[in-house]
Structure formats: C-alpha cells, structure tokens
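Lecture 7 notes: from sequence to structure.

We start with a single chain of 424 residues. Read the sequence below before looking at the structure.
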Amino acid sequence: ENAPPVKQARQFWHGLGPGLTTGAADDDPSGVATYSQQGSKYGFQLLWLAPLTFPLMAVVQEMCARIGLATGRGLAGNIKKHFPKWLVYLVAALVLGANSFNIGADLGGMAKASQLLVPWLPFWFLVVGFVVLSLVLQIFISYEKYAKYLKYLALTLLVYVITAFTINGFPWGEVLRHTLTPSLDWSKEQFILITGILGTTISPYLFFWETSQEVEERIVEGKTTIQERQEVDKKTIKKMRLDVWTGMLFSNLVMFFIVAVCGATLFSNGITNINSAADAAAALKPLAGNYASLLFAIGIIATGLLGIPILAGSASYAVSESFGWKEGLSYRIKQAAYFYGIIILSMVIGLLINFIGLDPIKALIYAAVVNGLVAPVILVLICIISQNKSIMNSHHNSKWVSAFGWFATGLMIITGLVTIYSFF
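Now the structure, written as tokens:
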C-alpha cells in the first residue's frame, strides 16, 4: 500500500488495458471532427455534455466488460445465445455497415491531416498507405504486442489537452461556467450534432470491442475454455472497473478539451463551419500558432491509427460470433481466416468510400449520427443481458447500474427519434 509514488504509478499503468484503449479509441478522427464542429459552431455552449456523458459511457462500458468476464464470450456470442437468430444477424449487419462507414471517414480525415505535414503526398497514396499499415498491425503482430502498442498510442490524445495550454489568454472562467450550466438553442442542426456527439461517445463498436478484449485478455492468461473464463474473482472485477472508468474519464477529458480549444480559437474568431478535422488543425494555425496546428494534426493521425483497427476488429467480432466462426486477435490468420477476412472487407469498404465523392467531414459527422441511431438497439440488449442473474451469476447489474444503463438507452432513443423526425 505504501509503495513509492513512481512504483504506484507504474502499477496503475500496468493495470490499465481494454478500458483505456476502448476509451481512447472513442476519440477517433470521427470523434475529433464532431467535437471540433461542436466547438467551432457553438463555442462553449455544449461543454456540459462532457460531464453528462462520462458516467453514462462508463456504466455502459462496464456492463459490456462484465458480460465478457462473467460469460467468457463476446457480446455477439451472448446475443446469439439468448435472442432470436435474426436479431444477432441484424446487429452484426448494422455494426459492419456503421463501422465500415466510420473507417472510411477516419481514413479520409487522417489523409487530410497528413497533407498538412507532408503536402506533396497525394491523398490516394496516404489513404492506401494507412489501410496497409493498419492491416499489417492487426494481422501480423501478436495480440500481446498489439494491445501494448494500442495502449501507448492512447497517450498521444494528450496533445489535445496540451494544445489548450499553448493558447494565450485561454478563458478558463467562461469554460467552467458552460461546463456546469446546461443550455440548448433547440435547433434542428444542434439536435443532429448532439445525436452525433452521443453516437461518437456511446458507440456500438466500443461495446463489442470492450467485451471481446476482456475475453482476449483471459485467453492470454491461459484460460482457453469458456468454463475457465467464467471463473471470475472480485479482484478481477475491481481491476476491470478501475481500467474502464479511467479509460472513459480520459476519453471525456479529451472530448472536453477539443471542444474548448475550438471554441476559444475558431468560434471566437467567427470560424463557425469547418469541413474536416484537418480544417480544424489548419484553422488553429493563424489563431493559436504553428505548434497548436501541428499538435492537432498529429493527434488526428494517431487517433486514426488507434481507432481504425478497433473499428475493423469490433465489426469482425460481431460478424464472426454471429456465424459461429473462430474469432480473435490471439489467433493467426490461417487459424481464423473468416475473422481476418471481415477485418480486410471492412477496411476495403472504408477505402472505397474515399473515392466515391463523399465530403470527408460530412462523412465523419454522418458516421457519428449513424452510430447514434444504431447504439440504442444494442444498448437494450446489453441492459437485458447484464441484469439477468441466470446469465451473469453474481456479476449482474446492481439496481443503480441498471437505472443508469436504461437512462443512457432512453436518452439515445429520444435523440435518435428527434434526429430522424428532423430529417423529415
């Protein structure tokens, strides 16, 4: 207990895993673009969403992690076991579609951000390069090394926090006021953006990734059968909880700072409509200096390298479990050909999306909104599974966790319906 602070910090870092990388992956280029748009269009007005979404997101991700630990199988595997077959196929199709779209949007955002650093490289070359790099990392690196790489990559998100401290005269008082006092202007545009914010914060791909990574971590520990994985002690649950809540706090902190930075620079200088995350980085240059612009661009590329494999991987977990294929990053490509095939398919769809004339930022915002519409369907199933004592044994939801879970689900359903209504 009384270990020196450095040792305590090291132990804490080693204890972090799927929760941290899942939280960090939430701030992918699609998220960065949505949050940048939020800050540039409305300034600090919607900053209160960060403290609101944090506990909701953490409770949902903890439910997913507990499902993985208590059942020894992934989320789609549980849906398949306890619900009609057509439902698991529908969920898998929705996740594959939303994730492939999101991958495409992220690839475009990364390529545009890269052109700020290396303007002479063509867009197509950068997009293809990121696809190849991402596939190599997922297919040819062992799960243990790969998980470690994702964990360290998560730290690059701190660039968004650092950026705020590089801006002269940052209005901390005003930022705090808007964080603590909710306000809305009830416009159609703002509702669509809020659905996007919720969709990019409480995202379907995070549900599948978190659950499957808890299972993968147990496999690495040598627990290769479902029976072995279902033996979970209180210490494991406690470690998971610390990991998940730290990851989600980190994710929401980054969201908060992206909105605040864009509000303090772009919005306050009348730049209220940016067309990509790269636009946000470029717009920061004259207002906040080269340093801020460079940090922002590097952040977009790093978050893409973190987020894209998680998008592709979670889509593949969902589809592979639905069809009963052998799945998992702990397998080699020859052992789980279909699993890796779906990863490649989602990456190829994402690649093609960049060459059909879709506006990259609109694609990013739409990807977030699509996630916001798909999430409630899966959230209902997560709440039902995680509160079921016969499925979860002693690790089922407490009453307050269930209440929070259903509140998050209700909120997503309402914003989703309002968004659909506003389109018509």
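The chain is about 80% helix and 0% strand. Keep this in mind for problem set 3.
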